[in-house]
Each structure stands twice: as C-alpha cells, then as structure tokens.
Amino acid sequence: MYGWQSSEGYLYDVLHEMEERLLIEGQWEDMERRRKKYFHITDQGIKFLSNIEQNTDQSLLQIHQFLLDMIKLLQ
C-alpha cells in the first residue's frame, strides 16, 4: 500500500533490538537445535506499547487536523 515491504532479515533485526531493550524475552524451543525461538512481551514492553499507542493517536489527530486545514485552504 505504501511501497514498503518488510523482509525476514528486517524482522529479525527488530526482534533482536526489542530483546536487547528488554521489551520482549525469547526462549529457544530446543537449545541444541536452535530452530524456533518463542517470544513474549515483558511488563516493560507492555508499558512501551502503551506509550507508542498514545503517541500515535496524538500524531494521527494532528495529521487529521492538518489535512482538514489544507482542504479548507484549497477550496
């Protein structure tokens, strides 16, 4: 839709960064084979997600107002 497409490599980079920042915790299904790693969100990750949601809501409201103002100017 926006001309951007994620790749597996990008997703793994994001997962590693989130794990380093203690937003998620990962656990290998089998430590010897290391094929599947399961992640769960931490309490810190839940708080961070809440902040992102609030900031996103505010940003979207600002963008919406900007677009309304632009439409008024162009009419």
| Overall number of strands | 2
Mean pLDDT: 90
Span of the ends, CA to CA: 28 Å
Structural class assignment: alpha+beta
Order of helices and strands: HEEH
Low-confidence stretches: none
- Evaluate the radius of gyration: 19 Å
Identify the overall geometry. elongated
Oligomeric state? single chain
Could you give the order of strands across the largest sheet? Answer: 1-2
Count of helices?
2
Strand fraction band? 5-15%
Helix content bin: 55-70%
Biggest sheet statistics: 2 strands, antiparallel
Task: Give a short overview.
This protein is an alpha+beta fold. The chain has helices at 8-20, 43-74, and strands spanning 24-28, 37-41. The mean pLDDT is 90.
Jot down its keywords:
about 80 residues, alpha+beta, about 60% helix, elongated
Task: Give your account of this protein's structure.
Helices cover 60% and strands 13% of the residues. With 75 residues, the protein is α+β, with helices and mostly antiparallel strands. A two-stranded antiparallel ribbon has the order 1-2. Strand 1 (24-28) and strand 2 form a beta hairpin. The longest helix is centred in the last third of the chain and has 32 residues, at 43-74.
Secondary structure elements and their pairing?
Blueprint: H1 8-20, E1 24-28, E2 37-41, H2 43-74
Antiparallel strand pairs: 1-2
